[in-house]
Structures are given as C-alpha cells and as structure tokens.
Specification:
32% strand, mainly beta, six-stranded antiparallel β-sheet, 2 helices
C-alpha cells in the first residue's frame, strides 16, 4: 500500500464513522468510500511561485454567502493534460490555500472546485501534489460554508488527480 493509499483509507474511515465527518448520519449509513483518480506522479512537483510584489487582500465568497479574507500570494505554472496552466496561491492566517476548478467540473469533479494546501519550501518554491486535491465539505453537506474558487483559478484543462465527485 502506498502512502497515498494509506492516506485515502484513513480519510475514508474518518468520513464513514467520525462524529466530525461532514457526512450526515444518512450518508454514513450508505458510505463505502470516496471516489479518487488513480495516483499520477506527474501532478506531484515543486513549483516556482512568482510572488506578487504587492500582497492584495482578496475577498473570497463562500457557498453560504459569507466572505473570507485572503491575500493573493503568487502564481505558478504547470502542465496538466498536455497543456500549460497557471494558478494563484492565496494565504490566510491558517496558511496557504489553492482552490481550483478544472475542465472536468460537474462531470467528474465537484462543480465548485477542489482545494489543495500547498507546502512552502525554501527559495520561493512550493510542493504541490494534485493527488491530494480534496473536495470542500460543502460538496457533501450544504450546511458547511466553503470558499468559492475565484475566476482566476478556473482551468480549461483537466486535472485527473485527487478526489472525484462524491456521488
């Protein structure tokens, strides 16, 4: 079992039985695990992030109509599905945040997007692993409030890694 397989098994166990799972009691009764893309090594990499010279505050709307405040930190480029793409990393008091929507949204991935928590490295680099892309809790239960992916992070390419649609 790979490290990713182990992580996914632990997450499935949490979702299926933990009291803080985002699933409702009814959903837990019929839960047999989340859906994932196969692991893709090419979507796990160190990215050189071009920091924005001025860290602008950014109000990110949420699924419940609230607003969360982030800082636009920087952009990075990468290849997915045979094409170059670019995403913006945001920062808040909780750390770095990378919401994104790919071209599979609504068919294979959650329509409002998926999230990543990129890991800062020395030298203006970040470790980005799209295999760890996860759905926000509002994908499972609309009682949760989740940031909505900004337009600048809506990709025209497919990112076949991480979590798929819940149902």
């Amino acid at each position: 079992m790979t490290e990713l397989d182990s992580f996914r098994a632990d997450k499935d166990a949490f979702f299926g039985s933990h009291p803080q799972s985002p699933l409702t009691r009814e959903q837990k009764n019929d839960f047999h695990g989340l859906n994932y893309f196969p692991e893709d090594e090419s979507l796990r990499f160190e990215a050189k992030v071009d920091e924005f010279p001025v860290k602008e505050k950014f109000e990110m709307q949420t699924s419940t109509g609230d607003v969360q405040i982030y800082e636009r930190f920087g952009k990075f480029k990468f290849n997915a599905d045979g094409a170059e793409a670019e995403l913006t990393i945001y920062r808040s008091a909780r750390g770095f945040f990378l919401p994104f929507v790919d071209s599979l949204a609504g068919r294979e991935t959650y329509p409002a997007g998926r999230y990543l928590d990129p890991e800062p490295l020395p030298g203006g680099r970040f470790f980005v692993d799209f295999n760890m892309a996860y759905n926000p809790y509002c994908a499972y239960n609309e009682m949760w409030s989740c940031p909505i992916t900004p337009a600048e992070n809506r990709l025209k390419v497919a990112v076949r890694a991480g979590e798929k649609l819940f149902h």
